[in-house]
Amino acid sequence: MLAVAGAILAIPGLAVAGSGGAGTSSSGSPNVAVQPGNVPVTATSNGITLDANASAFVRSGVSITGSVPGADAGDAIEIDQLGTAPATSWVRVAIVRAASNGSFAAAWHTGRAGQFTIRAVLQANQASSAAASPPAVSVTVYRRSIATLYGPGFYGARTACGVVLRRRTVGVANRTLPCGTEVQVYYNGNVATVPVIDRGPYAHNANWDLTMATGRALGMLGTAVIGAASTPPTSTPSTSTPPASPAGRGGGSPSAQ
Asked: Mean pLDDT throughout 63-90?
């Protein structure tokens, strides 16, 4: 729920808690697209500007700021949230009032992980907001989770999702998410989107097992605290059930939704 506030989003750094195993092959870098995650996002439409941060954590405040034209100073502004589920509609999460200079500020707190769109609408224009195309920004909310690394000793084996694990295989293991589910992994200010390719982990109170190639691409050296958010799978790898999954470096309940 949003409340009028000026809280600044603080993205925590990594929390290394142990060794993650042997290193990756020196034959080249894996094909992992790593992008900055802790960056500002902004949108402007119809004279209204909306600013936020691209990354947030569950139950941490996301600072939402912006401005309206001088003629609308003092007017009420509605902050709406749109989720990623099919047929999701806009939900009002706060009403703030623009200051005399047209600026406004609010803090958004959510208990769910996932990707959300946030928009700002002058309340007087709410009825025509669809036609007015108010400014909107996308924010990914991550759940803090313990992640381990795996790979050495299992290369050449087939995962529970039917993927042959190699030194440069990109992906994560999770105990319940469907094979092929895309997971955004946030670590130390960077984000990589990788698929679920295996089952696990099953020890060390971990929620995720990252392949060594995935972890190394993000700069992980061993067991660490990451942020994780999942989206529905766009395709599902083979779900044939081979012998035991090579995953299994951690445990605990899955953390994405």
From this structure: 88
Q: Which tokens belong to 22?
A: 């042997």
Question: 26 and 148 share a domain?
Answer: yes
Residue 151 backbone dihedrals phi, psi, to 5 degrees: 155, -65
135 and 146 fall within a common domain = no
What SS3 class is residue 52? Answer: strand
Q: Are 124 and 75 in contact (CB under 8 A)?
A: yes
Q: What CATH number is given to the structural domain containing 185?
A: 2.40.40.10
- Look up residue 158 and give its DSSP letter: B
31 in Cβ contact with 170 (< 8 Å): yes
Under a CB-based contact definition with an 8 Å cutoff, are residues 49 and 188 in contact?
A: no
3-state secondary structure of 78: strand
Q: Tell me the sheet residues that pair with 229.
A: 184
What pTM does this model have?
0.76
